[in-house]
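Q: What does the assembled structure look like for these inputs?
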Amino acid sequence: MASTFSERLFSMDYPDLVAFVSKTTHQFIKGYLQLLEEDFTPDLREATDAYLLRGGKCLRPMLLLLSALAAGERSPQHLASAMLAVECYHTATLVHDDIIDHDELRRGKPTVHTLVARRIASRYPRLDASKAADYGMATAIVAGDILFGYSAQLFGLLSAHYPLGVVNSILLEQSCELHPGLLLGEQLDMELEMMDLQDVTPKMVEKMMRLKTGLLLGFAARVGAALGSRKPIDKCPLAETLENAAEDAGVAFQIQDDILGLFGDEAQLGKPIGSDLREGKPTLLMVKAWAKATPAERRTLKKVLGNPKLTESDVAAVRAIVERTGALASCRRRANTLVKQAEKACQTVSDVTARKLLLCWLDTLVKRSH
Amino acid sequence: MASTFSERLFSMDYPDLVAFVSKTTHQFIKGYLQLLEEDFTPDLREATDAYLLRGGKCLRPMLLLLSALAAGERSPQHLASAMLAVECYHTATLVHDDIIDHDELRRGKPTVHTLVARRIASRYPRLDASKAADYGMATAIVAGDILFGYSAQLFGLLSAHYPLGVVNSILLEQSCELHPGLLLGEQLDMELEMMDLQDVTPKMVEKMMRLKTGLLLGFAARVGAALGSRKPIDKCPLAETLENAAEDAGVAFQIQDDILGLFGDEAQLGKPIGSDLREGKPTLLMVKAWAKATPAERRTLKKVLGNPKLTESDVAAVRAIVERTGALASCRRRANTLVKQAEKACQTVSDVTARKLLLCWLDTLVKRSH
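A:
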């Protein structure tokens, strides 16, 4: 029976598979949250559920599933709680990241702290705006903390179907490697933003991206490979191969995202062009441009970076510098190299179906435009 | 050898035992953090380490140790990572709680977010004060997240000395029961503060205190009992008895803390008398006073609660109402009942030494004046 389901699942076209996985993950999430949050207040429930119920592309659950397939998983239905665990973990980081970045929108809708601030303001119309914002932020801190916990819960549930040693190796990997690493990436992101552009090196920016974006993708791949092979996460050679591929893909994605943030299309991007500039983020583009810029160009870059009142002509000026210095071409080359590396790693997967689907996943990640 | 150490440890007087445990826990923490945070930036390291290195009474590690003794533990040295795990978990909640409450002091020194804000301000003297505060808050969010993860790591390490089934039951208990429960308590605390005093009931306040303060004490006791008996946490009858005692003790402690906050001594308390009033916290005292207050007294309570510019005579007026309505006496009675219940539960422990030490622990908790 299980093998029939597995065969059916993995004979789908990639877009059909994504649609199926998104739908079932979404259904599972809904049921799980209902069961778990009976006791929660409406504000807290809204805060913990908002992003999870907005759907999304399920990039991390998909990667976990495909990595398990590559490692020989025959009962993909048992992976459900692990797939949900990585999604909850990712969501927890988004909720806290949105507070840290003061972002108001996520996937075109209000961020958690914004949402809760509005709820309380409409409940107590005489409430101070700053008190409402505080309450929104505090609730979002609590909600993020809770979502981190869901991930540990959900991994724990795997012990119904997988050896305890494998499950334990995943929990240890999460708490010893992923968690402190990803959060260090978050911290580095903030610290780079405080620094002067001339003090930031491409190496520092890449390290930050690898930790903040790459690590969780690598972890999803490792968990999938460990579960699929029923081996502890540190004893599974495929886990390491796929982890490297996923990390490289994550960094490539992030570089492309930064390029799009400056050269992309506002409607597609879902946020104004030049947001990174306004916030003063030293992206790889900016750091590489600085290194090759003339003194006059450097004055422009300094003037524009972190200026909240940026004009369209400022953005155009930065674009020109980024192109003139070769920073744009250099970033594109770097992203390309990383994608090629990731592809090469995926090519070593022996199962034909798994290999094909992993390459589709990679393609979706690095070709997506927002 | 192990039994000799155990005998030596448990033949100490209670104050000597506390001193020994605080010292060794502190040493272990220091070594662990050094090992773990090699890669961290100085700001992040400061943020994660600050509270842990300030020492403290180790109430939760002590309770875990004594509960394990009560359950027959003969190798207390193996408990070290569990004791540190509950301390890290507690510290994580403090770091986030201090952001939420905008507190500037913790154990007489700056809170994490305040500390980091000052560090960045002194590094970049031209930085906006609000940007420095933001950076302090963001770093404290990240540091709290990391500390939650340390706790899972440290529990994971127990598998070197305890059966995997026991360790797994602890991790599941933490992520399924403790974590969402304690954070719901944090949320309820915020939500009660937003409500009008007349809408808050004693039951709501007690539920909040049980979740926010009682649950973690109960968890420390359960973990100790489970480890000491080498039984999964849900299969250990002593775990339940000690959990109830610890939860009751936690609520009693919180009630007394609220009483001290209004009637105590400012120097002993470490914060100004009437802080709860200023912040608008509907404590059990206030809720009970409201229920029995005259219309004129209610007007006074309403005027004073949440008024940041509270005078000494306002505080005196509230004290008089709290006494006149019998709220003070009623809260003292309630705390007393809870302590008696906890004592009764501890009396059922068969090991004489463990029983005696648990009663000392209880005494320290409910008699401490700040």
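The mean pLDDT of chain A is 92.
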